[in-house]
Design goal:
The protein is α/β, with parallel strands linked by helices. The chain contains 14 helices and eleven strands. Helix 2 crosses helix 3, helix 11 packs parallel to helix 12 and helix 13 runs antiparallel to helix 14. It binds S-adenosyl-L-homocysteine and iron/sulfur cluster. The site of S-adenosyl-L-homocysteine has 18 residues, from strand 8, strand 10 and helix 14.
Length: 409
């Protein structure tokens, strides 16, 4: 099916979801990097490791892969030479290749990561972005190539859904970032037991390409690899899953994933949200907020983030701001106002800065700390439109949007 037909089917026939066009085709020699523990145990079984040893071997390999960042079986000295050779015959510890890397003056890094296509000659690319702040470093990762949905302000939404990422491909994005940032524990640190040092990648947000709740199992399993305390060890309190509002799977995520949650709200009336986030026609605002109210473990210390992209003349009036705080009343919530990041061909513009400030004042007066009002937020504001230089590949606007999105706790 061509992308045009695929998109048409999604928008004009009343269906709001697209279907994947491809499946993941495993390479002849798969990589162990990112595999959930049960798959890794299976890989060991295939390599001749007897059942009684598997747990211990999984644990050892887990340490090499996710604490030490091993890029070769040869360095895994706690495994016998024979086992290393047997593993190397069937598997690799390679990472998905980086097709392009962009580094901004403020430390933001964006990687285009290549993933295999069903046809070897046609690989895919997804984005992964690192956003450093004074108190954290947030990695924004992708869950699908393209997206199931067609949000009208989102560039990914204009693309067809090519395929879902596997759990391993989801977790591998954190491994790639730690590689590129030199964010692994060295042998001396590990011997001293000082694995508690501050990590460059301390937080993860699932806000790259794709709708994570339409790739549920892989996202759940990938998050479990990222959160595993013997490995990458980024706790679920520091992992935020962002959804456009797949209501049944929000409930399921509460039961089976337990990460933090962000909701792409973007509008306070169903009429407008139907246009911006067409999935709203299936799961309207009232149902969405009900699922949020029932999300387990909510408290003032554990809030849901509501994302609100600022679109000039569309959703940015002060009446909208007042309606927004009314709507969220009673839900432990945080509101992230995201400056719209324009793309070629979009019908929208980013709200003017003084309008974003006025909007954020209403939000702030209702008791919500809003990123654009924090000290860091003011830095962002000051930087708006000024930092762009010929040498920078990420636009100031893009970095702005990314920073606002990264402030989830
Ligand atoms: N599909 C998920 C997660 C990926 S999008 C979701 O929709 O929540 C991550 C966030 O970026 C969402 O809040 C999305 O609405 C927002 N977003 C998408 N395009 C944007 C743009 N051009 N400018 C600013 N934010 C955008
Ligand atoms: Fe998909 Fe999220 Fe973009 Fe909507 S905003 S099209 S759900 S990636």
């Amino acid at each position: 099916m061509s992308s045009a037909v695929n998109t048409l089917a999604a928008t004009e026939t009343g269906f709001v979801e697209k279907h994947p066009l491809e499946r993941y085709a495993a390479p002849a020699q798969p990589s162990l990097v990112g595999m959930p523990r049960d798959m890794l145990a299976q890989a060991l079984a295939e390599s001749g490791v007897p059942e009684r040893q598997r747990r211990m071997r999984v644990q050892q390999i887990w340490h090499w892969l996710y604490v030490r960042g091993a890029q070769d079986f040869e360095v895994m000295t706690t495994l016998s030479k024979d086992l290393r050779a047997a593993l190397a015959q069937r598997f690799t510890v390679s990472r998905p290749p980086i097709a392009a890397e962009q580094i901004s003056v403020d430390g933001t890094r964006k990687w285009l990561i290549q993933l295999p296509g069903e046809r070897a000659a046609a690989p895919h690319e997804v984005e992964c972005v690192y956003i450093p702040e004074s108190d954290r470093g947030t990695l924004c990762i992708s869950s699908q190539v393209g997206c199931t949905l067609n949000c009208s302000f989102c560039h990914t939404g204009t693309q067809r859904l090519v395929r879902n990422l596997t759990a391993a491909e989801i977790a591998a994005q954190v491994v790639i970032a730690r590689d590129r940032l030199g964010d692994w524990t060295s042998s001396s640190e590990s011997d001293l037991g000082s694995g508690e040092r501050r990590r460059l990648v301390s937080n993860v947000v699932m806000m790259g390409m794709g709708e994570p709740l339409y790739n549920f199992e892989a996202v759940r399993d990938g998050i479990n690899v990222i959160a595993d305390g013997d490995g990458l060890s980024i706790s679920k309190r520091r992992i935020t899953l962002s959804t456009s509002g797949v209501v049944p799977n929000i409930t399921r995520a509460g039961a089976e994933i337990g990460s933090m949650l962000a909701i792409s709200l973007h509008a306070v009336s169903d009429d407008l949200r139907n246009q911006l986030v067409p999935l709203n026609r299936k799961y309207p605002i009232a149902e969405l907020l009900e699922a949020c109210r029932n999300y387990p473990g909510l408290s003032n210390a554990r809030r849901i983030t509501f994302e609100y992209v600022m679109l000039k003349g569309v959703n940015d009036s002060l009446a909208d701001a007042k309606a927004l705080v009314r709507l969220l009343k009673g839900i432990p919530a945080k509101i992230n106002l995201i400056p719209f990041n324009p793309w070629p061909g979009t019908q929208y513009e980013c709200s003017d800065w003084d309008q974003i400030e006025k909007f954020s004042e209403v939000v702030f007066a209702a008791g919500y700390a809003s990123p654009v009002r924090t000290p860091r937020g003011r830095d962002i504001l000051a930087a708006c439109g000024q930092l762009k230089s010929a040498s920078e590949k990420l636009s100031a606007r893009e970095r702005l949007a990314l920073r606002a999105m990264a402030m989830t706790d």
